[in-house]
Request: fold
Amino acid sequence: MTEGRGAMRRVLLSAMAVLAATALAACGEAEEEGGGGEAPAGEPVTLSVGIDSIYTPMFVAQSQGLFEEAGVDVEVKQFAQGGEGADAMVAGSIDMAGSADSTILTRAARTEIRALGVFVEDVGNYVKLVTSEDIDDPSQIKKMGIVPASVSEYGASKLLEAEGIDPESVELVPAGPPELPALLEQGDIDGFVIWEPWPTRAEEMGGRVLMESREFDLSYVLVLGARKDWLDTHQEEAKAVMSALAKADEVVESDPEAAAEAAGEQAKLPPEQVQGAIDDLDFAVRDFTEEDVQEWNEVADFLVERDLIEERPDVKAVLADAVVPSG
Reply:
Protein backbone atom coordinates (compact mmCIF):
# COMPACT_ATOMS: atom_id res chain seq x y z
CA MET A 1 0.00 0.00 0.00
CA THR A 2 2.82 2.37 0.96
CA GLU A 3 4.66 1.48 -2.25
CA GLY A 4 1.52 2.24 -4.33
CA ARG A 5 1.10 5.66 -2.72
CA GLY A 6 4.78 6.42 -3.43
CA ALA A 7 4.41 5.54 -7.09
CA MET A 8 1.31 7.76 -7.35
CA ARG A 9 3.19 10.62 -5.65
CA ARG A 10 6.04 10.33 -8.17
CA VAL A 11 3.55 10.44 -11.07
CA LEU A 12 1.87 13.59 -9.65
CA LEU A 13 5.22 15.34 -9.08
CA SER A 14 6.27 14.51 -12.64
CA ALA A 15 3.01 15.92 -14.05
CA MET A 16 3.37 19.11 -11.98
CA ALA A 17 6.92 19.58 -13.28
CA VAL A 18 5.71 19.29 -16.87
CA LEU A 19 2.93 21.85 -16.25
CA ALA A 20 5.35 24.25 -14.59
CA ALA A 21 7.80 23.99 -17.49
CA THR A 22 4.99 24.60 -20.00
CA ALA A 23 3.81 27.68 -18.08
CA LEU A 24 7.32 29.13 -17.93
CA ALA A 25 7.80 28.58 -21.65
CA ALA A 26 4.48 30.31 -22.39
CA CYS A 27 5.49 33.28 -20.23
CA GLY A 28 8.79 33.54 -22.07
CA GLU A 29 7.03 33.58 -25.44
CA ALA A 30 4.57 36.25 -24.25
CA GLU A 31 7.44 38.43 -23.04
CA GLU A 32 9.20 38.11 -26.39
CA GLU A 33 6.02 39.00 -28.32
CA GLY A 34 5.14 41.94 -26.07
CA GLY A 35 8.66 43.39 -25.80
CA GLY A 36 10.06 46.55 -27.32
CA GLY A 37 8.10 48.96 -25.10
CA GLU A 38 4.92 48.81 -27.22
CA ALA A 39 1.59 49.69 -25.63
CA PRO A 40 -0.37 46.62 -24.49
CA ALA A 41 -3.23 45.47 -26.70
CA GLY A 42 -6.47 47.21 -25.88
CA GLU A 43 -4.94 50.37 -24.44
CA PRO A 44 -7.38 53.23 -25.20
CA VAL A 45 -6.62 56.07 -27.59
CA THR A 46 -6.64 59.34 -25.65
CA LEU A 47 -8.36 62.22 -27.46
CA SER A 48 -8.35 65.80 -26.17
CA VAL A 49 -11.21 68.28 -26.60
CA GLY A 50 -11.97 71.75 -25.31
CA ILE A 51 -15.04 72.39 -23.18
CA ASP A 52 -16.73 74.05 -26.12
CA SER A 53 -19.71 73.38 -28.38
CA ILE A 54 -17.39 73.09 -31.36
CA TYR A 55 -16.36 69.68 -30.00
CA THR A 56 -19.93 68.37 -30.01
CA PRO A 57 -19.07 65.55 -32.48
CA MET A 58 -16.68 64.06 -29.91
CA PHE A 59 -19.35 64.21 -27.23
CA VAL A 60 -21.87 62.56 -29.56
CA ALA A 61 -19.43 59.79 -30.52
CA GLN A 62 -18.69 59.19 -26.84
CA SER A 63 -22.35 59.23 -25.77
CA GLN A 64 -23.70 57.07 -28.60
CA GLY A 65 -20.91 54.48 -28.63
CA LEU A 66 -19.72 55.42 -32.13
CA PHE A 67 -16.05 54.91 -31.26
CA GLU A 68 -16.74 51.34 -30.11
CA GLU A 69 -18.86 50.77 -33.21
CA ALA A 70 -15.85 51.80 -35.33
CA GLY A 71 -13.70 49.28 -33.45
CA VAL A 72 -11.57 51.63 -31.36
CA ASP A 73 -11.44 52.29 -27.62
CA VAL A 74 -11.28 56.06 -27.10
CA GLU A 75 -10.90 58.00 -23.86
CA VAL A 76 -12.04 61.61 -24.34
CA LYS A 77 -10.08 64.06 -22.17
CA GLN A 78 -11.54 67.52 -21.57
CA PHE A 79 -9.38 70.65 -21.35
CA ALA A 80 -10.43 74.25 -20.80
CA GLN A 81 -9.22 75.09 -24.34
CA GLY A 82 -8.31 73.08 -27.41
CA GLY A 83 -4.79 74.54 -27.29
CA GLU A 84 -4.16 73.00 -23.88
CA GLY A 85 -5.01 69.59 -25.29
CA ALA A 86 -2.68 70.20 -28.24
CA ASP A 87 0.10 71.02 -25.78
CA ALA A 88 -0.59 67.76 -23.96
CA MET A 89 -0.32 65.95 -27.29
CA VAL A 90 3.06 67.56 -27.96
CA ALA A 91 4.19 66.48 -24.49
CA GLY A 92 3.16 62.89 -25.24
CA SER A 93 0.40 62.54 -22.65
CA ILE A 94 -2.39 62.66 -25.27
CA ASP A 95 -2.52 60.66 -28.51
CA MET A 96 -4.86 62.83 -30.59
CA ALA A 97 -6.07 66.41 -30.24
CA GLY A 98 -8.95 68.33 -31.77
CA SER A 99 -7.96 71.93 -32.44
CA ALA A 100 -7.98 74.82 -34.91
CA ASP A 101 -5.64 74.99 -37.88
CA SER A 102 -3.51 77.83 -36.44
CA THR A 103 -3.14 75.98 -33.13
CA ILE A 104 -1.97 72.80 -34.86
CA LEU A 105 0.52 74.73 -37.02
CA THR A 106 1.96 76.46 -33.97
CA ARG A 107 2.61 73.08 -32.32
CA ALA A 108 3.89 71.60 -35.59
CA ALA A 109 6.78 74.06 -35.36
CA ARG A 110 7.86 72.34 -32.13
CA THR A 111 7.42 68.67 -33.02
CA GLU A 112 6.29 66.57 -35.97
CA ILE A 113 2.49 66.69 -36.00
CA ARG A 114 0.06 65.50 -38.62
CA ALA A 115 -3.40 66.97 -39.20
CA LEU A 116 -5.63 64.01 -40.08
CA GLY A 117 -8.71 65.73 -41.49
CA VAL A 118 -11.34 68.40 -40.94
CA PHE A 119 -14.28 67.68 -38.62
CA VAL A 120 -15.79 71.19 -38.28
CA GLU A 121 -15.61 74.25 -40.53
CA ASP A 122 -16.51 77.84 -39.71
CA VAL A 123 -18.45 79.37 -42.58
CA GLY A 124 -18.07 82.91 -41.26
CA ASN A 125 -20.49 83.13 -38.32
CA TYR A 126 -18.80 81.64 -35.29
CA VAL A 127 -15.90 84.08 -34.84
CA LYS A 128 -16.89 87.69 -34.28
CA LEU A 129 -15.50 91.15 -33.61
CA VAL A 130 -16.88 92.35 -30.28
CA THR A 131 -16.48 95.98 -29.17
CA SER A 132 -17.62 98.30 -26.43
CA GLU A 133 -20.88 100.17 -27.07
CA ASP A 134 -19.12 103.43 -27.94
CA ILE A 135 -17.19 101.86 -30.85
CA ASP A 136 -18.97 102.28 -34.19
CA ASP A 137 -16.10 101.45 -36.54
CA PRO A 138 -13.05 99.15 -36.24
CA SER A 139 -10.78 102.15 -36.91
CA GLN A 140 -11.69 103.46 -33.44
CA ILE A 141 -10.10 100.44 -31.72
CA LYS A 142 -6.85 101.29 -29.96
CA LYS A 143 -6.57 98.27 -27.65
CA MET A 144 -7.44 94.84 -29.02
CA GLY A 145 -7.74 91.77 -26.80
CA ILE A 146 -6.36 88.53 -28.25
CA VAL A 147 -5.80 84.92 -27.28
CA PRO A 148 -2.14 84.55 -28.33
CA ALA A 149 -1.19 82.20 -31.18
CA SER A 150 -4.80 81.25 -31.85
CA VAL A 151 -7.63 82.00 -34.29
CA SER A 152 -8.26 85.07 -32.12
CA GLU A 153 -4.87 86.64 -32.87
CA TYR A 154 -4.93 85.58 -36.52
CA GLY A 155 -8.48 86.94 -36.82
CA ALA A 156 -7.44 90.28 -35.33
CA SER A 157 -4.68 90.51 -37.95
CA LYS A 158 -7.13 89.70 -40.76
CA LEU A 159 -9.52 92.36 -39.43
CA LEU A 160 -6.87 95.09 -39.39
CA GLU A 161 -5.74 94.11 -42.88
CA ALA A 162 -9.29 94.08 -44.27
CA GLU A 163 -10.07 97.48 -42.73
CA GLY A 164 -6.77 99.07 -43.80
CA ILE A 165 -5.76 99.75 -40.19
CA ASP A 166 -2.05 100.14 -39.39
CA PRO A 167 -1.20 97.31 -36.93
CA GLU A 168 1.24 99.66 -35.20
CA SER A 169 -1.68 101.87 -34.19
CA VAL A 170 -3.37 99.09 -32.19
CA GLU A 171 -2.06 97.66 -28.92
CA LEU A 172 -2.64 93.93 -28.58
CA VAL A 173 -3.61 92.79 -25.09
CA PRO A 174 -3.08 89.03 -24.50
CA ALA A 175 -5.64 87.19 -22.36
CA GLY A 176 -7.52 83.92 -22.02
CA PRO A 177 -10.99 83.62 -23.62
CA PRO A 178 -12.97 83.91 -20.34
CA GLU A 179 -11.10 87.12 -19.44
CA LEU A 180 -11.90 89.06 -22.60
CA PRO A 181 -15.55 90.01 -21.86
CA ALA A 182 -14.53 91.27 -18.42
CA LEU A 183 -11.63 93.30 -19.84
CA LEU A 184 -14.05 94.87 -22.32
CA GLU A 185 -16.57 95.69 -19.61
CA GLN A 186 -13.85 97.30 -17.46
CA GLY A 187 -12.64 99.45 -20.36
CA ASP A 188 -9.19 97.81 -20.47
CA ILE A 189 -9.71 96.95 -24.15
CA ASP A 190 -11.87 98.40 -26.92
CA GLY A 191 -12.64 95.10 -28.64
CA PHE A 192 -11.58 91.55 -29.42
CA VAL A 193 -11.97 88.88 -32.08
CA ILE A 194 -12.99 85.46 -30.76
CA TRP A 195 -15.22 82.45 -31.19
CA GLU A 196 -18.50 81.75 -29.43
CA PRO A 197 -19.69 81.63 -26.70
CA TRP A 198 -17.52 84.60 -25.67
CA PRO A 199 -19.13 87.16 -28.04
CA THR A 200 -22.53 86.27 -26.57
CA ARG A 201 -21.13 86.54 -23.04
CA ALA A 202 -19.73 89.97 -23.87
CA GLU A 203 -23.11 91.11 -25.25
CA GLU A 204 -24.74 90.05 -21.97
CA MET A 205 -22.22 92.29 -20.18
CA GLY A 206 -22.91 95.35 -22.35
CA GLY A 207 -20.67 94.77 -25.37
CA ARG A 208 -21.77 94.59 -28.98
CA VAL A 209 -21.02 92.33 -31.93
CA LEU A 210 -19.78 94.72 -34.60
CA MET A 211 -18.78 92.27 -37.33
CA GLU A 212 -18.80 88.58 -38.18
CA SER A 213 -15.65 86.92 -39.47
CA ARG A 214 -16.97 86.58 -43.04
CA GLU A 215 -16.88 90.38 -43.23
CA PHE A 216 -13.10 90.47 -42.76
CA ASP A 217 -12.27 87.36 -44.80
CA LEU A 218 -11.46 84.99 -41.94
CA SER A 219 -12.12 81.29 -42.33
CA TYR A 220 -10.76 78.39 -40.34
CA VAL A 221 -11.27 74.71 -39.69
CA LEU A 222 -11.12 72.36 -36.72
CA VAL A 223 -8.98 69.30 -37.35
CA LEU A 224 -7.86 66.19 -35.56
CA GLY A 225 -4.10 66.16 -34.99
CA ALA A 226 -1.62 63.52 -33.85
CA ARG A 227 2.13 63.25 -33.38
CA LYS A 228 3.80 61.62 -36.38
CA ASP A 229 5.54 58.97 -34.27
CA TRP A 230 2.19 57.87 -32.82
CA LEU A 231 0.40 57.95 -36.17
CA ASP A 232 3.09 55.85 -37.84
CA THR A 233 2.16 52.90 -35.61
CA HIS A 234 -1.57 53.62 -35.16
CA GLN A 235 -2.92 54.22 -38.66
CA GLU A 236 -5.90 51.93 -38.20
CA GLU A 237 -6.90 53.52 -34.88
CA ALA A 238 -6.66 56.99 -36.44
CA LYS A 239 -8.86 55.94 -39.36
CA ALA A 240 -11.40 54.42 -36.95
CA VAL A 241 -11.57 57.63 -34.91
CA MET A 242 -12.14 59.72 -38.05
CA SER A 243 -14.82 57.26 -39.19
CA ALA A 244 -16.62 57.59 -35.84
CA LEU A 245 -16.45 61.40 -36.04
CA ALA A 246 -17.89 61.30 -39.56
CA LYS A 247 -20.95 59.49 -38.20
CA ALA A 248 -21.10 61.83 -35.20
CA ASP A 249 -21.09 64.86 -37.51
CA GLU A 250 -24.05 63.37 -39.37
CA VAL A 251 -25.92 63.07 -36.06
CA VAL A 252 -25.09 66.70 -35.18
CA GLU A 253 -26.52 67.96 -38.47
CA SER A 254 -29.56 65.64 -38.62
CA ASP A 255 -30.55 65.59 -34.94
CA PRO A 256 -29.41 68.78 -33.17
CA GLU A 257 -31.47 67.97 -30.07
CA ALA A 258 -29.69 64.64 -29.57
CA ALA A 259 -26.35 66.38 -30.15
CA ALA A 260 -27.16 69.07 -27.59
CA GLU A 261 -28.20 66.38 -25.11
CA ALA A 262 -24.89 64.53 -25.59
CA ALA A 263 -22.87 67.74 -25.14
CA GLY A 264 -24.87 68.51 -22.01
CA GLU A 265 -24.24 65.06 -20.57
CA GLN A 266 -20.53 64.93 -21.40
CA ALA A 267 -19.45 68.56 -20.93
CA LYS A 268 -22.34 70.29 -19.11
CA LEU A 269 -22.84 72.67 -22.06
CA PRO A 270 -26.15 74.59 -22.20
CA PRO A 271 -28.46 73.36 -25.01
CA GLU A 272 -28.93 76.85 -26.46
CA GLN A 273 -25.15 77.29 -26.71
CA VAL A 274 -24.77 74.00 -28.57
CA GLN A 275 -27.70 74.84 -30.86
CA GLY A 276 -26.08 78.18 -31.68
CA ALA A 277 -22.85 76.41 -32.69
CA ILE A 278 -24.76 73.96 -34.87
CA ASP A 279 -26.46 76.86 -36.64
CA ASP A 280 -23.17 78.71 -37.18
CA LEU A 281 -20.82 75.86 -38.12
CA ASP A 282 -20.58 73.19 -40.80
CA PHE A 283 -20.17 69.80 -39.10
CA ALA A 284 -18.71 67.29 -41.56
CA VAL A 285 -15.57 65.18 -41.81
CA ARG A 286 -13.61 65.82 -44.98
CA ASP A 287 -10.11 65.56 -46.40
CA PHE A 288 -7.92 68.57 -47.15
CA THR A 289 -8.28 70.58 -50.35
CA GLU A 290 -5.95 72.86 -52.30
CA GLU A 291 -7.85 75.77 -50.77
CA ASP A 292 -6.94 74.43 -47.32
CA VAL A 293 -3.28 74.23 -48.33
CA GLN A 294 -3.37 77.87 -49.43
CA GLU A 295 -5.09 78.98 -46.22
CA TRP A 296 -2.70 77.01 -44.02
CA ASN A 297 0.28 78.54 -45.83
CA GLU A 298 -1.12 82.01 -45.11
CA VAL A 299 -1.47 81.11 -41.44
CA ALA A 300 2.09 79.74 -41.37
CA ASP A 301 3.40 82.98 -42.92
CA PHE A 302 1.51 84.98 -40.29
CA LEU A 303 2.96 82.91 -37.44
CA VAL A 304 6.51 83.47 -38.70
CA GLU A 305 6.00 87.19 -39.34
CA ARG A 306 4.69 87.68 -35.80
CA ASP A 307 7.57 85.64 -34.30
CA LEU A 308 5.03 83.22 -32.85
CA ILE A 309 7.12 80.35 -34.22
CA GLU A 310 10.83 80.20 -34.97
CA GLU A 311 10.73 77.75 -37.86
CA ARG A 312 8.03 77.57 -40.51
CA PRO A 313 6.49 74.09 -40.75
CA ASP A 314 6.06 72.41 -44.13
CA VAL A 315 2.30 72.67 -44.57
CA LYS A 316 2.01 69.83 -47.09
CA ALA A 317 3.92 67.56 -44.71
CA VAL A 318 1.61 68.49 -41.83
CA LEU A 319 -1.55 67.65 -43.78
CA ALA A 320 -1.81 63.86 -43.68
CA ASP A 321 -3.24 61.69 -46.48
CA ALA A 322 -5.39 58.55 -46.46
CA VAL A 323 -6.85 58.94 -42.96
CA VAL A 324 -10.30 60.34 -43.70
CA PRO A 325 -12.76 57.55 -44.67
CA SER A 326 -13.65 57.56 -48.35
CA GLY A 327 -17.25 57.85 -49.49
